[in-house]
Write a structure and sequence with these properties.
The complex is a heterodimer of chains A (592) and B (91). Chain A contains 24 helices and 6 strands. Chain A has 592 residues and is mainly alpha-helical. Chain A has a 6-stranded antiparallel beta sheet. In chain A, a hairpin with a 5-residue loop joins strand 5 and strand 6. Chain B is mostly helical. The interface between A and B is large, with 64 and 47 residues.
Chain lengths: 592, 91
């Protein structure tokens, strides 16, 4: 669809970014030392830190990706909400307090606290960098997707605006301002989504005639770049010359309500879900074909489904295997749910937030505030997504735009606010990730692995340069990977984090036979095996290489089910093989 | 040599870890049940739970609520641990 820039949205966006940067500069003056830059002096209050957890965690994938997936396929998007939140249970009950006790600045600190091994530091730092960069790509792609309707600019500009702004935030003040950015963003996101849900319920549901809602659509891109919507040139129109606009039709319709009524009026949350369950809705399938004249045509075909079919798993291409009778088809779903469960506690930008509070009790309280905020948001995602699915405003070509377009259906101001919050969402998550990555470079690799002795000032300077470098890489990849699905990329990051980091963390905490070589090798094996599996999977064949996905070597696309146990097994075997060859006092953990 | 303070701190830490592990296992069983039923018993997940809402939606909300409830239980049961503040200035 063609988007026009909105002056209201532009003003709201500039005010948001201006305020965030002003706060960042102001707080930056208070963070001069390394502990201030990396860990906010360890003195952030537990409530602020807890909401900042939500700010860190509720990324573009959560806000844009999950809402979009629910809007297009129903309950399947909600599975991501469930999996993402469940991961916090692992973080709170198993990881939070020991990590807080062990570490100082980074994930590598925590892993290495008992061994003082350069091998572990290097492996953990590489893993932090790889996971952070994989997590950064979808955030940057999300930024580019948002900028189109918000400001009417191209994808590249969205990536550059976010990249430059975040670099300024991180370089000026490090963890102090990053924490406050996350706090503001986390609060705004939850509050505004709640307001949006109330508006959805108040509006209720209404029927669109099936002969309108069930019309197929086509988008053709000619070799010279001309775009045809349903066979005619796609245009904004020109009112001065009397030319009408022509574009794809917005979608997202209910074609039958229970009892044959035309509109429900205001609904309760339970009434909304129960009414949808007994309604009939339209979902869209797409297929791309290339014609003889090299024109690429995407055909969007409507499919009418009963509400009860979109309120259980399996309506989307991602999870369709759940409805298959073959066990092999279900493995993708099981593997992804395992990766989501294990991945949260292994994400470096989440782990470093445990160092910004003063003690383990504060870490515990922070996590609980985080779970409450994040859980509240994920409950709302189901209503937001289903609200978008029935709003009649969806862009059939881009699921990531569902939440902003839903807001636009309520007026220009809600749209401007949602877009600006989505932007700060991207800003917040990206700044947290760049913090984690710059810490891995300056603190872990330069100081601990390469033994470059840096004073406090030099260390912060190195981290700032590292932040600039990581930002540039992320911006480049964000532009390069424009066409890749955001949720797919986040799934990559969770799989890699869970395979590389979680086995090492868990075994370090709970098995006294763990050795330093076991930890280092398991991180590398988990990281390399999960990356290799993902790059050899069907989605990578289709979306990255443009090859036939049937030729993919990996038997299913999500590696966690194989690579997480592989990493555990590697750690156990290497530890058993190496502990007798080294002095126990140096190499083995003391009994707990 | 361990002092009384270290002993009680170590004891509290171990106790907290045990509580965390028990609560984790309870949630794991709840989560694994959800994944199993979603993958292998779609008919049950599609059946009505209450007020016209199916089991899948209720179970999903239940998992989110359970995470918060168990987190509160954890906060209530955990023992305070005496420990030096971390994340402070470099030694």
């Amino acid at each position: 669809m063609i988007y026009s820039g909105s002056l209201t949205a532009l003003i709201v966006f500039l005010v948001f970014v201006g305020l965030v940067l002003a706060l960042s500069f102001w707080l930056g003056k208070r963070a001069r030392s390394a502990s201030g830059y990396f860990a906010a002096h360890g003195q952030v209050g537990w409530f602020v830190n807890g909401v900042a957890f939500a700010g860190d965690y509720l990324s573009a994938a959560s806000f844009l990706g999950i809402c979009g997936m629910i809007a297009f396929y129903g309950y399947d998007g909600f599975l991501y909400s469930i999996g993402y939140l469940a991961g916090w249970v692992v973080a709170l009950f198993v990881i939070a307090e020991p990590v807080k006790r062990l570490g100082r600045f980074t994930f590598a600190d925590a892993l290495d606290s008992k061994f003082q091994s350069r091998g572990i530091k290097l492996a953990a730092a590489i893993s932090t960098l790889v996971v952070s960069i994989f997590y950064l790509i979808p955030q940057m792609v999300g930024a580019g997707a948002l900028i189109k309707p918000l400001l009417g600019l191209q994808h590249e500009y969205g990536v550059l605006i976010v990249g430059v702004t975040v670099t300024l935030i991180v370089v000026t003040a490090g963890m102090v301002s990053t924490t406050w950015v996350q706090f503001i963003k986390g609060s705004l996101l939850v509050i505004f989504c709640l307001v949006l849900c109330v508006m959805i319920l108040h509006r209720g549901l209404h029927v669109t005639p099936a002969d309108v809602a069930m019309q197929p659509q086509t988008l053709t891109v000619m070799p010279d770049g001309t775009r045809l919507a349903n066979g005619a040139p796609q245009t904004r129109g020109d009112p001065a010359r009397g030319l009408p606009p022509h574009d794809l039709r917005p979608v997202g319709n209910v074609i039958a309500l229970p009892g044959g009524i035309e509109a429900t009026g205001p609904l309760s949350p339970v009434g909304f879900l129960a009414t949808l369950h007994d309604s009939r809705l339209v979902v869209w399938d797409s297929k791309k074909t290339t014609g003889d004249n090299h024109a690429v045509t995407t055909t969007f075909t409507p499919r009418a489904l009963d509400g009860k079919d979109i309120l259980i798993a399996g309506a989307s291409p991602t999870f369709k295997g759940v409805r298959s009778d073959k066990l092999a088809d279900k493995l993708d779903f099981i593997s992804l749910m395992l990766a989501l469960f294990c991945g949260t506690a292994s994400l470096p930008h989440i782990l470093i937030r445990y160092y910004t509070v003063k003690d383990a009790a504060s870490a515990r309280k922070s996590t609980i505030v985080g779970i409450a905020s994040i859980g509240c948001f994920y409950v709302l995602t189901l209503f937001l997504g289903l609200g978008a699915m029935t709003s009649g405003t969806l862009d059939v070509t881009n699921s990531n735009m569902a939440a902003p377009l839903l807001a636009r259906s309520f007026g220009e101001l809600p749209f401007a606010l949602v877009s600006a919050i989505a932007f700060t969402t991207v800003l917040g998550t990206v700044s947290g990730l760049i913090m984690a990555a710059s810490g891995a470079v300056a603190h872990d690799i330069m100081e601990n692995v390469l033994n470059i002795r840096l004073n406090d000032h030099a260390k912060v300077g190195a981290a700032r340069w590292a932040a600039v470098g990581v930002s540039l890489i992320a911006m480049w990849l964000g532009i390069k990977f424009e066409k890749l699905n955001v949720t797919f990329l986040v799934g990559w990051a969770f799989n890699v984090a869970a395979s590389a980091n979680l086995p090492a963390l868990v075994m370090l905490l709970f098995w006294s036979g763990t050795t330093k070589r076991g930890v280092a090798v398991s991180i590398l094996v988990g990281m390399v095996s999960s990356l290799a599996w993902l790059l050899l999977s069907a989605p990578a064949y289709k979306d990255l290489y443009g090859l036939d996905p049937a030729r993919a070597i990996a038997p299913f696309s999500q590696p966690g089910l194989v690579t997480i146990p592989l990493s555990f097994l590697t750690l156990i075997l290497v530890s058993l093989a190496t502990r007798s060859s080294l002095r126990p006092a140096q190499d083995r953990l003391p009994d707990r | 040599m361990l002092y009384a303070g270290d002993m009680s701190s170590a004891h509290a830490t171990a106790k907290n870890a045990r509580i965390g592990m028990i609560l984790f296992l309870i949630y794991l069983a709840f989560y694994a049940g959800f994944v199993y039923l979603s993958a292998f018993d779609a008919a049950f997940m599609a059946s009505h739970a209450f007020a016209g809402i199916n089991v899948a939606v209720v179970y999903g909300f239940g998992l989110i609520a359970a995470a918060f409830v168990l987190a509160l239980v954890y906060l209530t049961l955990c023992h305070p641990v005496d420990e030096p503040a971390r994340g402070g200035p470099t030694p």
